Every structure is written in structure tokens, then in C-alpha cells.
Request: fold
Amino acid sequence: MANLQVSLLGRLQVRRGETPLNLGSPQQQAMFVVLLMRAGQAATAADLVEALWGADEPPSAMTALRTYAWRLRKVLEQDSRNPSTLVSLGDGYRLVLDNKDVDFLHAEELANRAERAREADDLDGAYELLESALTLWQGEPLAAIPGPFAARQRDRLTETRLSLQEKRIQTGLALGYGGRFISELQGLIDQYPLRERLHALLMQAQHQSGRRADALAAFRHVRQLLVDELGVEPGPELTSLHQRLLAGDTGLVDPPEAAEPPQTPTPVPPPLPVTDAAAPGAGRPGFQPPAQLPPQPADFTGRSHLAVTLCSAMNTPDRGALPVVVLVGMGGVGKSALALHVAHRIRDAYPDGQLYAHLRGGDGEPLRPEGVLTGFLSALGHKPDEIPKGLEALTALFRTTVDRHRILVVLDDAKDAEQVRPLLPGAANCGVLVTSRSRLNGLSAGMQAEVHAFLPAEALELLSRTIGAERVEREPAAALELMGCCAYLPLAVRIVAARLAARPQWTVQSLARRLADERTRVSQLRAGDMTISAAFDVSYRQLTDHQSAALRRTASIDSPDLSLACAAALLGTDEPDAEDLLESLVDAAMLESPSAGKYRFHSLLRGFARDKASSQEQSAALSRLLDYLFASSMAAFAQFVSGDPIEDALSPAQVQGARLTTAAEARAWAAAEGDCALALAGQIARTVVSEPAPGAVRTGPGGGCASASTC
Reply:
């Protein structure tokens, strides 16, 4: 169908024009992916069952397939009765899309064009095409899509990306850009230590940069690694390369002198040598290379594909503008750990030093830019009497000092764009990495990347590193259950891992049972001075009164997703005002918006927000939602059974429900709000109440409530 754009080189996203589409449950998305990856070829029902469930096929598999197809057509088709995008063929289906509208098919086409350009000796063109193909990756392919087929495709697409990176680097080496790839290759080798091709490329890049000794040392390292891990010697490519290095082969990968990088914007002057601040030619007088990066976490886990994307964004060759990358995410999601991991991996690309500041954006008194700049200038070699007063003068001197130098600036926990903007160097040869709990609207950033919770495998890996793999392997089901209780939030995983490490006599299952009750889970997630509540409270204190009230009230309902209309009912306001409040919470990383008009809590944040609310506040919010759903249900019922006497037996609606004028609108409303209505009914059913006084609000430990007239 026209106007559908599909991205799967990261989290699965489908858009019609500028509007994101909700493909439903993970299993339903998995079916869409199976059809998508067949590139227009049909999949039989048997193909789909094997791809989605493998050997664990449920008895209801065929019914589930039909349901998934029906729901997908509701989303993808303009007329689901006459489908043109998801069409039936025999007992299976075929997905009809234009290749150019699917990111991985577009990447394959760019790679094919790059190969043709290389065959035609157009190395510049090949390099540009490979760069374009790699920019389409936005994280782990098909992230969070379940099923054996998706797992196989993830491996395939990851291998494709790695192959494209190798081809891009090899082409760049032929053009003479060796120095630009050293840090990137070292990062890739950290992920794929036994891939000999990467080691060969690193040796060539080091040799081309005049670091022959490093290249020889790199060979010794990989040889020892292969012998220790696999019991084999390096293959022919590495062995031949080593022999040529020993022989002093100066033409190893040296390019013609006339080679120029592709897409050259305004030339960036090379950094001045800064090996000794007092030596002649060591840069500006008084300049000294700072090294302020804190150590990276020793147990850093996961984020491999996002880390590679961030490294590439911070180390783009021939850039014409300052690279600024912002990592955004809720408290406890691991933004700072990821930033430090990336900063250490790319530090070789910024040989003139690294500056670091914790901006305390979540504290009551965030650092002022003047104080940060004074510290930076002192670290760069300026004496106290050389440092001016006033923000403009400080910024001007800072930018003058770092001009023509390659300096990495890491700004952790920024409050807003106003705090960050004066701290930005003016030269494109520097780089800035920022973390923040909220989107820095108004900041000119090349990339604002959202940092999400761990994937299950990443959470289990961190747990295994802390308490020992054998302990996790003894209780695999309990370990996965425990990670689910943590909602895969890195800080929560660290907390439970620390508790188990300190209590070797505990079983994993025993701690999972302690966290089984969602009502007390947040208070249980603590280990020493690490607590989930403290991490969330930092962001909560930054909210306005209206925002904090909206957070507490929308957290009242158990439904994982919440429509704008239901949220407005919970808040007791109209939809435009509700949308403004909810979108501000999304910007503050306290709420997620999986699609337009839909909102979602991270489960631990929902528990935290409920703990902040009084029982009366929750009861009133749920009572308003119940009244809205009741009124809307009556309006929907009337479209199908007009004049039915049951209407006279029901209490009159207390509020205005959804305006439904046709049976089709009523059916669509029921499909959209059914999950929320069922969640509320379940809460009410679980509520343990005593007989209320007339007109009283009823509450109970399950969090459900209703007015006496409608509960």
C-alpha cells in the first residue's frame, strides 16, 4: 500500500506518512515481520506457525493467525474488506510493499550500488553509499520481536551490518582515512574478538597512521587470543599482513596522495600536536590536554548496537558541524554508564583531551554554566587571573582555547538546553556527548537517542556477571521471572544482583517471590544506598504541580496502554489539556508514547507514582474513568440495539462519553478501549471492600474504586 514506511533496523516502526501505526501485540508484530522479510513472497499457515512458535506451537495457533491478520488489516488497510497490502493466498498471506519504503531492503540496494561503484573504481562513491546504508541502522534489528524466525533474522541483519562496516572501513583505508577508524575498530573488536577480519583492518589502519609498532602488537594480541580460545594459529590474511609489516612494506595500504575524502564540506584544520604543553609547537600557549573521564563501569553490559551507532555519530569523518549526541531516558536506565562506555571507546579520536562535568540537572540546584566553564578553562591550562567573569566572556575564551584541537566534552545529567548551550565548543573537530532525563528541546543536536530498558538477555547477562553464571543456570526460570519483576531496568537489575551477591545462601526464586507483589515492589528494590525510589524521585521533583498530579492519576489504572480519551477522564480535564500534560511527561521521560494518542508507563515508574498518590486521589481518578467508560459503552450499545429497555434499567451516565454516531464508530471505540475497560473491571473485581456508606467512595488494596452509584 502506498504511504507505508517500515523500519526494522532497530525497534519495529511502521508509519503512514507522518503518522506512526500501532501493530499490536509482540506476537502480532512477529507475524508482520515474517511476511515483511519474505519480500513480497507468500507465507503459508505452516510457515507462519513455525516462524512464530517453532516447536512450542499452541493448540490455538491457527485461530491466533487469523486474529492477527484481521487486526493487522485494521491497521494497515484503508479498506480492510478489500485488502491490498495484506492479501490472502491459500491458507497463508502475502505482504505487498514497495522495497524503497522498507529500510533493510533500501540498505541492501545501497550496498549493491556500492559494490558496483567499487567495481568501477569509484571509491568515493562506494564510500558514500556504504555510509548511507549504515545510517539506516538505529539499534538492534527487530528489537523485542519474539519467535525463532525473528531471532534468526536478528542474527542475519547484525551480520549484514558488520559486513557493511568492514567494507566501508576497507574502502576508507583505500582512500587513506586509516586514522579515523582506529577507535571504531577497537570497539568492534571488543564485541567480536575472534573475527580475524576486524583485527586485519585495525592493523592496516594503525600502519597507515604511522603506528607500525601498534600494528605489530595488535597481531601478537590476536594470535595469543586465537591460540588460547580456539587452539589455532591466525589465518592466511593476518599471517600475510604480519609478514609484510615485518618486511617494512610501505605500500601496504597507502593510497595515492591525491585521494580526497568524499562529501568534503568546509575544511576542518588538523589538530595541533599536543604532547607537551611546554614544548614549542604544542598548541596554544598554556594549553594542556585534560583527561577528566571517570572510569567506565567494569560490568558494563549490553547496548552493543546502540554503542556502535553512537561511536559512529561521534566519529563521523569530514564533518562540517560539531557532533552533539544526547542520550535521553528515565532514571535508572543506564544513560551515564552508556555515555562513559562510548566516551572511552572513542577517546583515541579526540587525542587532545576529554572534559567531563556532572551537571546535576536532577538536583535542586543544577550547576550553572559559569562554574562549569571556569573548571574547564582551568583544566585546559588557564591560570585563575586569566579566567574572565561573565558567561559570554567565559564561553568565548573556552571556544577560542579548544579551537583547532580535538576535544571530547561529556556533560552528564543535563537539566535543559539553556544549561548546555554555553558549554558547546564552536569547532567541528570537537565532540559533545550529553545525558539528560528529558529531551533537550531547542538544542541543535545531531542525534537525540532514547535509551530504553534492557532486553531480557542483557538483563540476565548482568545478573550472571554479578552472582555467577552457574547460579543463574541452576534457576533459569526464576532468573527470568526476577528480571521481569525488575522490568529489565538496569538499576533494578543491579540492585537485585547486589542483594543476591551479598546473600549466597538465598535462591533466585526466593527474591523473585519477595518482588512478586507489584504494590510493594518499588520499596523492596533497594540495596545499600541504591534505591529505585531515589532514582525516580530526582525526576519527580522537577515536575510542576500539574505534571506530578497527572503522573499520579494516570498511574491509577492497571492497563499497560492508555488512550488520550481515557487519560483525560482520569485527569478530569479535556483532551487538549490532557495531551499537553502527557506530552510534557513524555519529554521528561516519565511516560512513553508508543504511538500518537497512546501512552504507556514503565511498570516500576507506575508503582512509584502510585506510592506518591493518596487513596482518595486514585479512587477519584478511577471513578471518573469508570463514569466515562460507562457513558461511552451506553452510547456504543445504543448504536446496535437502539431503544433496548436495558437502558432504562441502568443508572444515567454521570458524564459525557465518547460521541458515537454509527455502528462502525461504536465498534472501533470498543476495539480501542476494550483493554482499558477490562483492566478497570479487573481492578474493581479484585478490590476488597467493606460495605460503604451511601455516596462514599470505595477503595481497597487492589487499587480499584468507583462511586457508590456505579461500582
Notes: Residues 254-285, 688-711 have pLDDT under 50 and may be disordered. The CA atoms of residues 49 and 61 lie 7 Å apart.
